[in-house]
From TrEMBL:
InterPro entries: DUF1707_SHOCT-like, LiaF-like_C. This is Cell wall-active antibiotics response 4TMS YvqF. Pfam families: DUF1707, LiaF-like_C. Residues 128-183 form the Cell wall-active antibiotics response LiaF-like C-terminal domain. Residues 26-78 form the DUF1707 domain. Residues 1-29, 88-107, 210-229 are annotated as: Disordered.
């Protein structure tokens, strides 16, 4: 019951707080009614309901306003038929993290012949990227990169040279390259979360190497002082 507050204001007791509707009280849509009607039609086709029972229940289905009125109409049917027709559950809020996928590729290759080449910082990698190092070095850093497609293939070829590919933890990577008097190294210990971009690294290392690694951890002030002497 209402309570008298300071200055004559009326307070509402806890028992009189606004009622929040439960799943059974949620309003049903036309699509919901059609789904329940299909369950009944299927049950009649299987011999579980007579034509008269079907007609009676369909009348109630199309007159129902809430899920609480719909569910009793299929309650005596096999459970497997009910799984897809339960009351709707709250949907998770959309992710607020920026997407890694989108945009057009800004560079499709990196070549180093007795020299060096790098791709790092904010850039967009196309679905296929070629890296070639001949007695030189190529550095590819995906830490701040975006991807034109959900899946990306990096074709890495190192001949008496080296290619270093940095892959952040929110990207899934698969390494399938092979080596001849050289090799592919992969120090990534974890896979990205579900739905993360996928990078497939393939190619050949001949008397050279391709190294796939996570981003370097930032050094703290004490470490810098020790290294600087």
């Amino acid at each position: 019951m209402p309570l008298s507050g300071v200055g004559g204001a009326t307070l509402v007791s806890v028992s009189e707080q606004p009622h929040l509707p439960g799943p059974q009280e949620m309003r049903a849509s036309n699509a919901d009614r059609e789904r329940f009607a299909k369950v009944l039609h299927d049950a009649m086709a299987e011999g579980r309901l007579t034509v008269t029972e079907l007609e009676e229940r369909l009348d109630h289905v199309y007159a129902a306003r809430t899920f609480g009125e719909l569910e009793p109409l299929v309650r005596d049917l096999p459970n497997q038929q009910l799984v897809a027709y339960q009351s709707p559950l709250p949907q998770p809020a959309p992710s607020t993290h920026p997407t890694r996928v989108g945009g057009r590729g800004t560079s499709s290759s990196a070549v180093a012949i007795m020299s060096g080449s790098e791709r790092k910082g904010p850039w967009t990698i196309p679905p296929t990227f070629n890296a070639f190092a001949l007695m030189g070095g190529v550095e590819i850093d995906l830490t701040y990169a975006t991807f034109e497609a959900q899946e990306t293939t990096i074709q890495a070829f190192a001949l008496m040279g080296g290619i270093e590919i940095t892959v952040p933890p929110d990207v899934t990577v698969y390494v399938t390259g092979s080596g001849f008097m050289g090799g592919f190294g992969n120090s990534i210990r974890t896979q990205g979360p579900p739905g993360s971009p996928i990078v497939r690294i393939t190619g050949m290392a001949i008397m050279g190497g391709v190294d796939v690694r996570p981003p370097k951890k930032p050094k703290n002030k004490k470490q810098k002082e020790i290294e600087e002497g």
